[in-house]
Amino acid sequence: MKRTLMKLAAFVAGSALIACAASAQTAPSYPTKPITIIVGFPPGGISDVLARALGQRLSVQMGQPVIIENKPGAATTIASGYVANAPADGYTLYFQDMTSHAIAAAAYKKLKFDSWNDFSMVTLVASTPLMLVTSSASGLKEVKSLVTQAKSSPQPLPYASSGQGAITHLTAETFNQLVGIKALHVPYKGGAGQAQALIGGEVTYGFASMPPAVSQVKGGTLNGLAVTSGKRAATAPDVPTLKELGVPLEILLYSGIVGPKGMPPAVVERLGAEVRKALAAPEMKRVLQDAGADPLTSTPAEFATLMKSEAVSMAKAVQAAGVTLD
Predict the structure, then answer these.
(1) What is the pTM assigned to this prediction?
(2) Nearest to 215 by CA among 191, 231, 232
(3) What's the CATH architecture for 129-227?
(4) Which of 2, 25, 194, 275 can pair with 188 through a Cys bridge, CB separation 3.0 to 4.6 Å?
(5) Cα–chain center distance at 148
(6) According to the UniProt entry, where is the signal peptide (predicted)?
(7) Residues with Cβ < 8 Å from 225, sequence gap 6 or more?
(8) In angstroms, how far is the first alpha carbon of the chain from the final one?
(9) Alpha helices in 180-228 (DSSP H)
(10) What whole-number distance in Å separates Cα of residue 273 and Cα of residue 12?
(11) CA dist 190 to 3, 35, 76, 161, 196, Å?
(12) Are 108 and 77 within 8 A, CB to CB?
């Protein structure tokens, strides 16, 4: 009897193993269809540039098209809300500017999603500084000259941002407070509009994302005065940091991949591994360098910890600037 039971148990165990193996062979492996990555900004900004480069690389690696879809507006909350309500199957992802995500959490009193609990963290992708720029027509090529003119001007100098409550706005307000100047905020719709206003001389200065800032500085249409990182950017080595110039301001834009809450752990793990592989590719390294960005990967837990830390910093900046977006 005992021997019969042992044979039966062995048969059942063997059958289970065979069934599992068959299931593993027949179950579709992720991905089996195109993946869409949502960007909360218009084309041309740092998030769009990096997302498109990453998407192209992931498409090659994973054997499926990766589509970049821009959903700008409302300080990225339109894009955030869309992703939060998407199916948690790994086919709708978010190239998240976590700095703006943290700003929205502090500046909006009512959101249709939970900024921290309605998303699955996948991995960080990059960190990027901003660049303080002036129009070439202004003749201002140093931070000291900008501050001197701002303090002596009978009217507040106009400065551009990529939108009310955007990181470019909060950084400028923080800078103004640190150097003791008053200025007139002129918000534009996205980084492209901000850049055009600076180039055309409609405004005197602004903090811009690196891709448009670097190309315009190299082209001679803008003057690069300083960057907000702790070290000089490799793509603009002649531009000093604000800290070098005695202004204690350091701000980095952190980008990462997230998805809706409840994504399968195996999909999260696969995506994280594919992003790390993509960032090591020579063509991706060139894109990052040209954009003034540094690659930065993480575990989902590390991503969440940094995001919550940024939320605290951005909440302080929002409060100091008196920004409300409801």
Answers:
(1) 0.83
(2) 191
(3) 3-Layer(aba) Sandwich (3.40)
(4) 194
(5) 33
(6) 1-24
(7) 131, 132, 133, 134, 140, 141, 142, 143, 146, 205, 239
(8) 75
(9) 190-199, 210-219
(10) 36
(11) 75, 25, 11, 8, 10
(12) yes
Side chain identity at 87, as an amino acid letter? P
- Alpha-carbon gap, residue 228 to 295, rounded angstroms: 17
For the chain, the domains span: 35-128+253-321, 129-227
Assign 103 a pLDDT band (cuts: 50, 70, 90).
confident
Q: Tokens for 133?
A: 């720029």
Domains 35-128+253-321 and 129-227 share a fold: yes
68 by DSSP, 3-state: which? strand
pLDDT at 275 over 90: yes
Q: What is the pLDDT of residue 33?
A: 97
- CATH architecture for residues 35-128+253-321: 3-Layer(aba) Sandwich (3.40)
24 three-class SS? helix
DSSP 165: T
Residues contacting 84, CB < 8 A, separation 6+: 112, 113, 114, 118, 119, 260, 261
